[in-house]
Amino acid sequence: MGIIQSIKNKVRQRSIHVCYVNVGSCNGCDIEILACLSPRYDIEQYGIYVHNNPREADILLITGAFCEQWEDKLADLWEMIPEPKAAITIGNCPVSGCTFNRRGSFVNPPVSKHIPVAASIPGCPPRPTEIIETILQLAPLVFKDYEEKK
Amino acid sequence: MLSIFCYIKEFLRPEWWKKFLFVKTPPLVKPDYFRDYPHLTGNECTHELRCMMICPSPGAIEILKNEDGKWAPVIYKGHCIRCGLCVEACPDNVLASGRILEQNETDNTSFLASYYINVNDALCMKCGNCSVACPINKEIDPQLAYNATSSSNNVIMRVKGSKLTIMHPEKCTGCKTCEKTCPNNAITVARVIEGDQDDD
Question: Is this prediction's ipTM beyond 0.85?
Answer without folding.
Answer: no
